[in-house]
Amino acid sequence: MTVHNLYIFDRNGTCLHYSEWNRKKQAGISKEEEFKLMYGMLFSIRSFVSKMSPLDMKDGFVAYQTSRYKLHYYETPTGMKIIMNTDLGVPSCRDVLHQIYSTLYVEYIVRNPLCVLGEPLQSELFTSRLDSFVRALPFFSVRAA
Amino acid sequence: MARQSTRSTDSKKMNSELFTLTYGALVTQLCKDYENDEEVNKQLDKMGYNIGVRLIEDFLARSSVGRCQDFRETADVIAKVAFKMYLGITPSVTNWSPAGDEFSLILESNPLVDFVELPDNHSNLVYSNLLCGVLRGALEMVQMAVEVRFAQDTLRGDNVTEIRMKFIKRIEENLPAGDE
């Protein structure tokens, strides 16, 4: 089991943060392009999924998986979106993503008055804490499954 | 970068008098810096707004409250969870308009005004106007445009402090411009 990469988008679709761990193959497009397409896809999936829902949805879209990887999605009511790609063996990551939001993003970015909200995150402290947090996850392991 | 690493998200005890006095000092300074009370009210609202847009993230992180289904639920969460968490009081929610888009928060006590008496030359000052800004900013971040104002204030001789909130509209999310 392993974690491939992680995106954080704000409510306007700006990619605030990106980091990757065991990502062996790149998409072959520029990162900007990738962020834009990722956000666009999520935006469409999200709205279509809730249109298709037979009942009013609470959490909406949470994850999808392909034969190779699994995308975990978490969104706060303020529109912050955290996306983590892992391989298939990883169970639901909602709690993990919520923790990234509440113990890392809110703690180191929102509570830091010098961090401007809505701009790509510059905080080294945040980046390094996030890195150690992800590396410490039980399903983070360099041995690809 | 010497910050303690594992600060929990539990609410911390803090001296409420220090908080009250700090707020007092802030308002006093604004009164010195600006000519008239309206301008001070506006500044307080603006500061509150900037606090609100950040505070909402903190609130969501701590409270694990999800998206509200309707404005009534929002009112309840504001009164019972948010006010309790940040000011230690639980205002009552009353005076709903028939359409259900407007309500009042009645504050039995307002910790911001514990030591305050408005001088005569500041009759137009809305001392706790920061709260309006906070509420407006926080709700805007969860896609709700609201109008918030003080309807009654114990500082001006009313029996209770009343914050009136009016729902204006839902802010729709849009795909950022320039995206195909």
Automatic annotation (TrEMBL), chain A:
Q: What is its main location?
A: endoplasmic reticulum
Q: Which SMART domains match?
A: Sybindin
Q: Which Gene3D superfamilies match?
A: 3.30.450.70
Q: Which InterPro entries match?
A: Longin-like_dom_sf, TRAPPC
- Write the record's keywords in alphabetical order, separated by commas: Endoplasmic reticulum, ER-Golgi transport, Golgi apparatus, Transport
Q: Name one Pfam family in it.
A: Sybindin
**Coiled-coil parts of chain:** none
Q: Which PANTHER family match?
A: TRAFFICKING PROTEIN PARTICLE COMPLEX SUBUNIT, TRAFFICKING PROTEIN PARTICLE COMPLEX SUBUNIT 1
- Assembly information from the UniProt record: Part of the multisubunit transport protein particle (TRAPP) complex. The heterodimer TRAPPC6B-TRAPPC3 interacts with TRAPPC1 likely providing a core for TRAPP complex formation.
This chain's protein is named Trafficking protein particle complex subunit
From TrEMBL, chain B:
A Gene Ontology BP annotation from the UniProt entry: Golgi vesicle transport
Keyword Ribosomal protein applies: no
Q: Where in the cell is it found?
A: Endoplasmic reticulum; Golgi apparatus, cis-Golgi network
What cellular-component terms does GO give this entry? Answer: endoplasmic reticulum; Golgi apparatus; TRAPP complex
Q: Where does the source fall among the domains of life?
A: Eukaryota
Q: Which Gene3D superfamilies match?
A: Trafficking protein particle complex subunit 3
Q: What does this protein do?
A: May play a role in vesicular transport from endoplasmic reticulum to Golgi.
- Subunit field text: Homodimer.
From the Swiss-Prot or TrEMBL record, give the protein name: Trafficking protein particle complex subunit
